Amino acid sequence: MANADPVFTRNLIIKANDLGAAATLMLTFDKDIKGLYNDNFPLCWKVTSFGKEGGYTMRATFKSQLGFVKPQVESDIIVGASTYKILDVGQKTTLTKDDRGVYHFSDPVPGEDGYLKAVNGCPLREDMALGFPLTPGAEPTPVLYFNKIGHEASIIAQFTPVLRAYITEQYQETQILRGEVSTPSFWEQDLADLDETTNWRLELNKSSGVYKLVQV
């Protein structure tokens, strides 16, 4: 039975053995997000290459505790965070920039029920990202990027962890996806419905060329 706690951890272990073709597996959260590819953009979360022969493993861990990040971006890759703030659902924070050009998120205060909110208190447009920390105090792993947020404008986020899988070599981890992935997704799963740790096998139907993930 899946864990029903408000904050949960999900560990996915994906293996392949003698897959039959070299393939790169990419995981991202890009399902039914309001304003997708206009106001916000998913991040390429995990990427692993699987060889044609032999054994290969991808491990991915998600934690449902979320927070906002002031990202450092190079060539559409998020390479780090200037600062970040972890929130509980129903809280908000404000991003500011001091006279030295250093960014700060305010301590969380009550916001809107059921949502996480971030306000741009900086004088110019800024970008932010939504992410999750794997351990307390750790820098969050970004999963959703928000571009050019206006002065005093807000991000109001309600994130459902529906994960999708693609076979594609076009992306690298933490890359901002500016448009739909060119190949169709072949698997999707709401992580809240899973047990804490699940094992999966990546398979290829050699006659049809169709990939699938099978829980084992």
Walk me through the topology.
Layout: E1 9-17, E2 23-28, E3 40-42, E4 44-50, E5 55-63, E6 66-74, E7 77-87, E8 91-97, E9 103-105, E10 109-110, E11 116-120, E12 126-132, E13 141-149, E14 154-157, E15 162-167, E16 187-190, E17 197-205, E18 210-215
Parallel strand pairs: 1-17, 8-11
Antiparallel strand pairs: 1-5, 2-4, 2-15, 3-13, 6-7, 6-12, 8-9, 8-10, 11-14, 12-13, 15-16, 17-18
Descriptive overview:
- With 216 residues, the chain is mainly β.
- It folds into two domains: 8-33 and 40-62 and 161-215, Immunoglobulin-like (Sandwich), CATH 2.60.40; 65-159, no CATH class.
- Helix content is 0%, strand content 54%.
- It is built from no helices and 18 strands.
- It has strands spanning 9-17, 23-28, 40-42, 44-50, 55-63, 66-74, 77-87, 91-97, 103-105, 109-110, 116-120, 126-132, 141-149, 154-157, 162-167, 187-190, 197-205, 210-215.
- A five-stranded antiparallel sheet has the order 3-13-12-6-7, with no helix packed on it. Strands 8, 9, 10, 11 and 14 form a five-stranded mixed sheet that branches. A four-stranded mixed sheet has the order 5-1-17-18, with no helix packed on it.
- The relative contact order is 0.25.
